[in-house]
Amino acid sequence: AQSVTQLDSQVPVFEEAPVELRCNYSSSVSVYLFWYVQYPNQGLQLLLKYLSGSTLVKSINGFEAEFNKSQTSFHLRKPSVHISDTAEYFCAVSGGLSNFGNEKLTFGTGTRLTIIP
Amino acid sequence: DTAVSQTPKYLVTQMGNDKSIKCEQNLGHDTMYWYKQDSKKFLKIMFSYNNKELIINETVPNRFSPKSPDKAHLNLHINSLELGDSAVYFCASSQVAAEQYFGPGTRLTVT
Q: Which of A46, A63, A73, B12 could bridge A59 with an S-S bond, Cβ 3.0-4.6 Å?
């Protein structure tokens, strides 16, 4: 069974300050990892993903996340946040190709990022 | 062009009624999913279909019945609606073991 832990339910950050949203996972098989963002009253959008290869992955809007297998973590970072980054961020894990037939996403409980002007 | 679409966007109904939510994807993906997001924003898988075949059926009451007429469509029918069914329901699609693309959600309110 897989699980995802997002320790911080809410993170307030001043505009232009850096931010880190923490995500830890547990799984008995190799995993794919994802960050999804949900803006107010909208659906989920894929922010970035780790499937294989380089452990540092980046999004087009300045976010990055690093897969750390030894620490079973996939923390999300941004060096300078903007008001428009205010949203709910969900970390998720799926079983990957080694778990065909069970590619469901298991989500963390989400972190609400609030940017303070 | 919407990749994953759901109808309706909002659904308000009374307890005991039967309702359906429709989902369509034009991405050519083989797998489709239904997720439920509760009032605390927690997301949980309900069902998954791969090429019209049910492959994941989490512990969901049998009042919920998914139907996939073809691999581009996955509908969710709910019988005898209860207050606890109030939530946002998301449809998603993916290729095998890859990122999932979500629809805009259907906010179901049972009164």
A: A63
